[in-house]
Amino acid sequence: MARAAPLLSLAAGVLPEFSPEQTVAAAIAGGWPAAGIWYDPKSWTPATTIEVRDRAADAGLAILDIEVIWLKPGPDDPAHFAAIDAGAAIGARNVLIVSSEDDTGRAAGKLNRLGNHAAAMGLRACLEFAAFTTVGDIASAVALLDAADCDNLGLLIDPLHLARTGGSPADLSSVDPQRFPYAQFCDAPAHGPPPGDVPEIIREALDLRLMPGEGELPLDDLLAQLPPATPLSVELRSAALRDDHPDPADRARALLAATQRWFAA
Fold it and tell me: Which pLDDT tens digit goes with each residue over 197-218?
């Protein structure tokens, strides 16, 4: 029986070698209703904001998220607040945050400030956990969000990271559903690199993801635990996909077709 497809968004990581402007153009050409945008403070300019905003608005393309704010040890990074401001300017709904801040108290404080700034700018700030960050599983992520004490902070679930950190869809049942404004989506083998092999875990996350239905992740179970119609950022980072579809619009089109086939099956 076919599954009801929610809002599907082309994740920025699908097109890592292309600019935000090219990502928007590829998403539009590929038929996506939404896209995610990568923010690089070294290359983002006012012209980037204008072109991304106007192209997306003219085509009716939603901007599901802007990424990535990566917390590091040390003081607040002004670029993190600038990323939120850029997201607001292009109409993004969410901003993605990961953390390598090794002090839980400092991390909570930074999340609180970023979450409140995002709220003032009209975005939801969402924390993603992964085996290669200091927030290494869903329980740690929930605990950090609780410590940050900001209603505007959400929890971003990536099915690959959930599986590789020893989690399962059932773990979502104990989390407030309002924590999930959107989620990521991809497939992978049931078993991956050994838990301690961080370089291989990173390589899998960046290069070895599979199209929905080509792997063995419990995607139906995951969707059943998320609130109905939760938007999905299709985070298909894949060297094979990049090699097979060097043209960004062709890549976007191929990924959307594969994702829609999974939902129609």
Answer: 999 999 999 999 999 999 999 9
